[in-house]
Design a protein that fits this description.
By secondary structure, this protein is of the alpha+beta class. It contains 16 helices and 10 strands. Belongs to the protein kinase superfamily. TKL Ser/Thr protein kinase family. This is Protein kinase domain-containing protein. Keywords: ANK repeat, ATP-binding, Kinase, Nucleotide-binding, Transferase.
């Protein structure tokens, strides 16, 4: 699953040699430490030093005021402000002490910072005209986190919304560092609003007019495919076919979207969820991307938010890619669904290294089926195509497609 940036730690100290004298560096580090520990007496002692700077910044641009706001220590915050701390310093992510206090819900600190002139953070997608608020907008006051718990290692939280449980993903401000990213995210939300498929997790809405910004989706309590496979072990053939087709249908729907295909780019078992009936749904489009008319996407930086195990080689090589970028992880997932154990680390390591070096031969994948090896081929032009075509080559079409035969123009051609 694409993953959300974790909450920032209070401080990350710079190392000696970054244009600061050792004495001032030591004093600054001490100041940050005392703010983190809530040691007001120790902080006073540090600031009595001639070398101490109340606005000292660590390697991430964070100050003692940031740290105190994160910890919710009102006395430390007041003391720093009275000693001349800048009220709204921005760290490398653009976050201020007030934004941190809002994130951690430290209401007394929020009130205090506002008394000293701090301005509430404005969401990057905020609009002045109420008529311009998107249809998918959800009032954050409607989200009840009182009995909230984290799922998928803190990426999502469970909340109550209008009487039902939903999954809520909080988005960090670092995702919206420029106007292009904001516009791209706005377009993606508008697209997600239109997606309706039984094998794709349902998008319910988003919070974009206030911070923190959030994405709200349906909540599937039965967990993900990874946990299911770990629990069940090797699956019977019929169940393996059923699960494989669920994934294929969901991904085929995304890839066939018009006018632009939707690439997942983070397809892996933890991003495939189970509903109450046991069917699978593709989830978490945190690093998804629209495939433009040119049919090939090229980026300045390869995707760094996905699990390396399931990343297609062209992303490692920072090459152009298309819908086949999702076929590579799909083949790995099929292998796991069919035989349960992961591919050996040595084989996967060989695939990854050879993919980067573009040196893998056909014999290197001899441990896999012909279809899986074609999907794992480091050259995407040799990789098997769309998801349902992949299912056909895996002998799933006649085995378990059922109603799918009526919904498509005959069998796909190999």
């Amino acid at each position: 699953m694409e993953t959300e940036a974790a909450p920032r730690s209070p401080a990350r100290f710079i190392t000696v040699g970054e244009q600061q004298r050792p004495s001032s560096l030591e004093a600054g580090m001490g100041l940050m430490y005392m703010a983190n520990e809530g040691d007001l007496v120790g902080m006073k002692e540090v600031l009595e030093s001639a070398e101490a700077d109340v606005n000292f910044r660590d390697i991430d641009g964070r100050t003692a005021l940031h740290v105190a706001a994160c910890q919710g220590n009102t006395d430390i915050v007041r003391f720093l402000l009275d000693r001349g701390a800048v009220v709204e310093p921005k760290d490398r992510w653009g976050s201020t002490p007030l934004a941190d206090a809002v994130y951690y819900k430290h209401h007394e600190v929020i009130k205090l910072l506002e008394e000293y002139g701090a301005q509430p953070p404005i969401a990057p997608m905020h609009v002045q005209n109420a008529r311009e608020v998107p249809e998918y907008e959800i009032d954050p006051a409607e989200l009840d986190f009182s009995n909230s718990s984290c799922i998928t290692k803190g990426t999502f939280r469970i909340a109550m919304w209008r009487g039902i449980q939903v999954a809520v993903k909080t988005l960090g401000e670092e995702l919206f560092t420029d106007e292009d990213k904001v516009n791209a995210f706005r377009d993606e939300l508008a697209l997600l609003q239109k997606i309706r498929h039984p094998n794709v997790v349902q998008f319910l809405g988003a919070v974009t007019q206030s911070t923190p910004m959030m994405i709200i989706t349906e909540y599937l309590p039965k967990g993900d495919l990874c946990a299911y496979l770990n629990q069940k072990g090797a699956l019977k053939r019929r169940m393996a076919v059923k699960l494989a087709l669920d994934i294929a249908r969901g991904m085929n729907y995304l890839h066939e979207n018009k006018p632009e295909a939707i690439l997942h780019r983070d397809l892996q078992p933890t991003n495939i969820l189970r509903d109450d009936s046991g069917h699978l749904k593709v989830a978490d489009f945190g690093v998804s991307k629209l495939l433009k008319v040119a049919k090939i996407v090229k980026e300045d930086k390869p995707c760094q938010d996905t699990s390396w195990r399931y990343v297609a080689p062209e992303l490692y090589r920072n090459e152009g890619y298309d819908t086949k970028v999702d076929v590579f992880p799909f083949a790995l997932i099929l292998q796991e669904v069919s035989s349960s154990p992961h591919l050996s680390f040595s084989l996967l390591q060989q695939v990854m290294i050879s993919a980067v070096e573009q040196s893998m031969g056909e014999e290197s994948l001899s441990d896999l089926t012909g279809f899986e090896s074609s999907c794992l081929n480091y050259g995407k032009e040799k990789r098997s195509g769309p998801m349902l075509l992949a299912a056909y080559h895996y002998n799933l079409w006649d085995y378990g497609c059922g109603e799918d035969k009526k919904n498509f123009q005959g069998k796909p051609k190999s």
